[in-house]
Amino acid sequence: MTIKSLIKPPIHPKMHCDESPVGYLIRIAYLNKYNSFQWLMEANTGKRKIGLDSIYKYIEHTNWCGESTKNGGILIDIQGCNSTHLLTYLRYCPLCIHEQGYWSVTWHLQVSTVCTKHKITLVDRCVDCGEYIKYTEVGHALCKCMPGLSLTENTEPCSKELLYLQRFIEGGKIEKNKGLLINNDHDLTLKCRSSLLRMFARYIPE
Questions:
Q1: CA distance 33 to 36
Q2: What integer pLDDT is reported at residue 154 of this predicted model?
Q3: What is the pLDDT of residues 2-52, one digit of tens each?
Q4: Which DSSP helix (H) or strand (E) runs through 165?
Q5: CA-wise closest residue to 34 among 15, 17, 12, 55
Q6: H/E/C letters for each residue in 91-104?
Q7: Nearest by Cα to 88 from 15, 137, 152
Q8: pTM metric for this prediction
Q9: CA 148 and chain centroid, separation
């Protein structure tokens, strides 16, 4: 498939440096009252599945999206993670959705389970219907059954251990008196960090 730039809609805010590529397109579609974000992709008028890597390339080839795809950081790093590391449904922090109005790119990762800002466990099901929320079936802040994602009341505080793991995933530093297995000055890629946690998770009883 030939990658072209996105079609420029009337309302086109810049992409945040830590924003989900999928979430960004859904946010634009929502603001412009489009039924689907696929309308923004000129070369993809069919109904075949679009991968995260393809969406990222569309954004990278579009100059009106801003500089977030060119400056490095976790948005760049997540390109190195193949589908085995990524979720096929939305996992999110309802407080972040309420406060900042966009989805974080780290929520794509299977190993991401908590929000380091609000110190709560991420939500991965619609609070109304109880179903997993697929990216293709969600609006900017709504499940297909219509309750707002930011209206979740049953948020749960996360443990310190999960908070430290999430900081490790996101490349943050952890206090050195916490018995670290890996030094804060490591140069592990996001894919390596995700692979390590996925490997350790196999030995944790469900």
A1: 9
A2: 66
A3: 667 888 999 999 888 888 888 888 888 888 988 778 888 865 545 555 667
A4: helix 160-169
A5: 12
A6: CECHHHHHHHCCCE
A7: 137
A8: 0.77
A9: 18
